[in-house]
Amino acid sequence: MRLANNMKYKVTHTTKYDYDAPVPVCHNVVYLTPRTTNVQSCSRHRLTVNPTPTTHSKRIDYFGNAVSSFSIATSHRLLQITASSSVTIQPRQLPSEGSTLAWESIRNSLATERSAEGLATYQFAFPSPHVPFHPELSDYARESFKPGLPILEAIRSLNERLHADVKYDPKATTISTPIIEVFEHRRGVCQDQAHLMLGCLRALGLAARYVSGYVRTQPAGESPRLVGGDASHAWVSVYCGSAGWIDVDPTNDSFPQTEHITVAWGRDFSDVCPVAGMFIGGGNHQLDVSVDVMAIE
């Protein structure tokens, strides 16, 4: 299979909070810096906050994500956070489905591997705040994960079914909607579909992590438009044994190549919320988020 060329992007993510009363103080944590991985590099990143923060710090979190924290101790009615990044992505080369190990073999090895790398992988096989265990998800997943099936073949089947069964509907859920409710109503957004897939995979004992990032909505050529580009996007990465971690996007029924930009990963959305924080005062407020992913020739 002929691989696509490397892609370079300029990404601009702007978040605005418009308050109807003064906010004397706020504290915020943001995950907006694209990761550097074996297929992705971030050559430039700039975070601009208005009003100017009173304090600002950076750190690397438990999962290796870049985190920025800031506080504003001056009264304001408008908070604007803009992250600008330049990213280069290499095509991901998928192994043939038949060359990957049977999914049970990978599940069984996870429970016995005690190296640092093995334990770091195994932590993603357990329930998390937004992805509790539900037997219904195990039953659903087993329709794709037949005994002895190569893991990549099973993942493809599950991805296709979730994409077909769960309608993308921005009005159907909120951040606090339980995944079992999403499963029952079969409606939600990319975050919900990613959480559902995580719930299915972990219910079988497999390791899978939540990935937060961006997706280019107008791929080159005649490829179909991808959903999720008007805000942060979410998908899943599954541990496939010797094949490593393989990304899969149930919202768009795809295996990411060069159109997905990884920002952060964790157990679920609660680990990598793009912008989170607290404030005093402010009354009611209006939130506006815009994301522009521009390919650089």
From TrEMBL:
It comes from the Bacteria. Gene3D superfamilies: 3.10.620.30. Residues 182-252 form the Transglutaminase-like domain. Pfam families: Bact_transglu_N, Transglut_core. InterPro entries: Bac_transglu_N, Papain-like_cys_pep_sf, Transglutaminase-like. PANTHER family: BLR2979 PROTEIN (PTHR33490:SF7), BLR5614 PROTEIN-RELATED (PTHR33490). This is Transglutaminase-like domain-containing protein. It comes from Bythopirellula polymerisocia.
